[in-house]
Amino acid sequence: MENVVLTIHLILALLLIGVVLLQRSEGGGLGIGGGGGGAMSARGAATALTKLTWIFATAFIITSITLTVLATRGSESGSVVDTLLPAADAPATDAPVAPGLTGNLLPPTAGDAPATAPRADEPAGTAAPATNP
Q1: In this structure, which of 12, 14, 81, 125 has its CB flanked by the most CB atoms within 10 Å?
Q2: Is the pLDDT of residue 23 over 80?
């Protein structure tokens, strides 16, 4: 059921894009005027395309709402965020760590951070121990 609605939704999206692109620019909002006598210059064709746009847009919104309802009906948990974040009462050290990351991911404490920035003229790793004034 969900796959059928999704397929209809995608087809409606493509049709809506096509119908909107076929319409003539009446306001000249982009600076390109629609001069000359093209095939779509008749007022009857413009109203037909406008009606098609409204029909496709309405159907697109209906399929969007239907897909949302179908997706929430099949879910067992309340939210995606609930499945990604650990519980609020659990300690932060019990949280799963992504592959390649090790150790504590919290910001460093005052004792872990250097007291002063290394000087620019010293090579990396040879800075003298910092003292707090």
Answers
A1: 12
A2: yes
